[in-house]
Amino acid sequence: MKNKLKNIRIDPKTLGIDILFDIVGCVLYGAGIYNFAYASDFAPGGVSGLSMLVNTLTARMGWFGGSGISIGTAMLLINIPIIVICFKFLGPAYLARSIKTILFSSLIVDTLMPMLPTYRGEPMLAAIFGGILAGAGLACIYMRDSSTGGSDFIILSIQKTHPQLSLGAVSMAVDGVVILLGGVVYGRVDAALYGLIMTITYSLIIDKIMIGNDSRKQLTIITSKGKEIADCVTHELQRGVTILTGRGGFTGAEKDLLICVCSKSEVYRIKRAAYELDATSFVMVSSIDAAYGKGFKPAEK
Question: DSSP H helical segments within 61-150, as ranges?
């Protein structure tokens, strides 16, 4: 892991923007899981939900004076083995940003969120508005090519080792286990249902904020730096790129035309890479109904 991280170049301006998005995103995310879900006794999917269950169980066991392992501490402790197992599948810059975000989220959930008012009203409203806040927070984090770790790391690792699997199905399985455990820990079926509603809500909000609801996107990029952009997308995002040669009808200048099909969560990262390498790039994003082949659905026979 040390070798992966040691050669990362840090731009102060980019780091400052990343930290700003991290703080805003982690505050919104923390409010959703702590001030709404945790206060209403249900757990959404993912490491945050699992951390809430760890806190509840350890509190019942009388640990730490009956307060249990704090949610932020549990998030950090659960992420450590996940990072150790998955780090070889993650890009070094993405890994470094995610570790930073994990530390921010753990700290904010444990220090800032308890100081803010909690909602203890109708659980359905808590699930909906908690999901909206958490989704908005995660979108801020994802837009800076980072994550809160946990299931994001697991899903990304599975995608790289088993690209034929549906990411939606893998995500549903990971979140579903935690949500069902929530129903068991809280002793109520509706606790699992509220957790499911919150998880669906924040997933929809992330989609709405970032790029919409379509499951697959095709990016067409017209640029003078096709090789550099293609190398970045191929090596950093593990997505295939087709390079064609075109000529401008007005200028007559030769340009590279890149075609890349990706998942909805990767659109922002590819656009960002294109504009960072060539600010004059022309990027078109279109929705496609389905994609078949390596990294997507298996070809139908």
Answer: 71-86, 92-111, 123-143
Q: Report whether 26 contacts 105 (CB < 8 A).
A: yes
- If you average pLDDT over every residue of the chain, what do you get? 85
Measured CA to CA, the distance from residue 64 to residue 229 in angstroms comes to 52
CB 173 within 8 A of CB 151: no
For residue 292, list its beta bridge partners: 297
Q: What gap in Å lies between CA 103 and CA 107, rounded to an integer? A: 6
Residue 277 CA: distances (Å) to CA of 222, 231, 236, 263: 12, 11, 14, 21
- Segments making up each domain of the chain, as ranges: 2-210, 216-288
CATH domain 216-288 topology: Alpha-Beta Plaits (3.30.70)
Q: What does the DSSP assignment read for 21-36?
A: HHHHHHHHHHIIIIII
Q: Is 220 helix (H, G, I), strand (E, B) or coil?
A: strand
Query: Which of the four pLDDT bands, split at 50, 70 and 90, describes residue 164?
Result: low
Average pLDDT over every residue of 100-121: 93
